[in-house]
Write a structure and sequence with these properties.
- By secondary structure, this protein is α/β, with parallel strands linked by helices.
- It is built from 9 helices and 7 strands, in the order βαβαβαβαβααβαααβ.
- The longest helix is centred in the middle third of the chain and has 29 residues.
- The relative contact order is 0.15.
C-alpha cells in the first residue's frame, strides 16, 4: 500500500495499458481519476478499481484540447481535493507507416504531436500550480522505446515520443524546486489494442509477414527483438509507474526508464 490515500489521474485509461496502470495504482492504495476519450471504457475501468476496494471517477477527456485538460484536473480536485499523481498515458500512432518517411502526411504528424506531446504539456500545465502550492507531486509520462530506436516504420510516432522525453526533462527542471518528480516510462512490446492495430499495417507493407495473424506477428517481433524473449505486460508498466509515484523514487527525476525486456540497453 505504498500509495495509500493518494489521488492519481491517468489518461488513456480505458485501454489495455491504461487499465493495467490504474490497477497497479489501486493495488497500492491510490484512488484514480480515469480519463479517456471513450467514456464507456473509462467507466469499465472504474468498475474494476471499485471491485478492488478503491474509488474511481470516469471523465471523458480529449487531451488535444487544453480546456478539456483543465476540466479534467478541476474535476479531480473538486471530487478528491488533491491530485498527487499525474500519468500521461494517452497515446496515438496513426493509420500510415513510414518506410520511407515520405509515406506519411502532414495530418499524421499533426495528430501524433497533438496527442503525444501537446496533451502531456496541457496536463502538466494544468496540474502544475496545484502541485507547486503543495510542494508535492509525481508526474509520469508514458513514452516508448520508439523514441530511442528511431524505427523507420513509425517516423511521426517516434519523433513525437522523443519530444515527450525532452518535455519530461524540461518540466522536471522547472518543478524540481517544488519537490515534484517528473519521469518517463518507455514501454517495449506490449500486446494491447495499439499492437492489434499496428500488426495489419505491418503485414500489408512487408511480404515477410504477409501470412501472419496479428498475434503471430507480435510473437515473432518479441522473439527476434527482445533479449529476454518475452513480451511485456500492462502490469509491468504499471509496476514501474507505482515505483516512480512512491517515496522510494523521491530522488529520481528527469529520467526515462525502459520496460522492454532488454531491447534498449544503456
Amino acid at each position: 500500500m505504498r500509495l495509500k490515500g493518494k489521488i492519481a489521474i491517468v489518461t488513456g485509461a480505458g485501454g489495455g495499458m491504461g487499465r493495467g496502470i490504474c490497477a497497479c495504482l489501486a493495488r497500492e492504495g491510490a484512488d484514480v481519476v480515469v480519463s479517456d476519450m471513450n467514456l464507456d471504457a473509462a467507466k469499465g475501468c472504474v468498475e474494476t478499481l471499485e471491485a478492488m476496494g478503491q474509488h474511481g471517477l470516469a471523465v471523458r477527456t480529449d487531451v488535444t484540447n487544453e480546456e478539456d485538460c483543465q476540466n479534467l484536473v478541476d474535476t479531480a480536485l473538486e471530487a478528491f481535493g488533491v491530485v498527487d499523481i499525474l500519468v500521461n498515458n494517452a497515446g496515438h500512432f496513426g493509420e500510415q507507416l513510414g518506410l520511407p518517411f515520405t509515406n506519411q502526411t502532414e495530418g499524421d504528424w499533426d495528430d501524433n504531436y497533438a496527442v503525444n506531446v501537446k496533451g502531456p504539456f496541457f496536463l502538466c500545465k494544468a496540474v502544475a500550480s496545484h502541485m507547486m502550492d503543495r510542494k508535492y507531486g509525481k508526474i509520469i509520462n508514458i513514452s516508448s522505446i520508439a523514441a530511442k530506436r528511431d524505427p523507420q516504420i513509425a517516423p511521426a510516432y517516434a519523433a513525437a515520443k522523443n519530444a515527450l522525453l525532452n518535455l519530461t526533462r524540461l518540466v522536471a527542471k522547472d518543478l524540481g524546486a517544488y519537490n515534484i518528480n517528473v519521469n518517463a516510462v518507455c514501454p517495449g512490446l506490449v500486446w494491447t489494442a495499439f499492437w492489434r492495430k499496428l500488426a495489419p499495417l505491418i503485414t500489408r507493407s512487408n511480404p515477410t509477414y504477409a501470412n501472419l495473424a496479428p498475434r503471430e506477428l507480435f510473437e515473432e517481433w518479441v522473439k527476434h527483438n527482445t533479449p529476454l524473449q518475452r513480451e511485456q505486460t500492462p502490469e509491468d508498466i504499471g509496476n514501474l509507474v507505482v515505483f516512480l509515484a512512491s517515496e522510494e523514487a523521491r530522488n529520481i527525476t528527469g529520467q526515462s526508464i525502459h520496460v522492454d525486456g532488454g531491447i534498449c540497453m544503456g
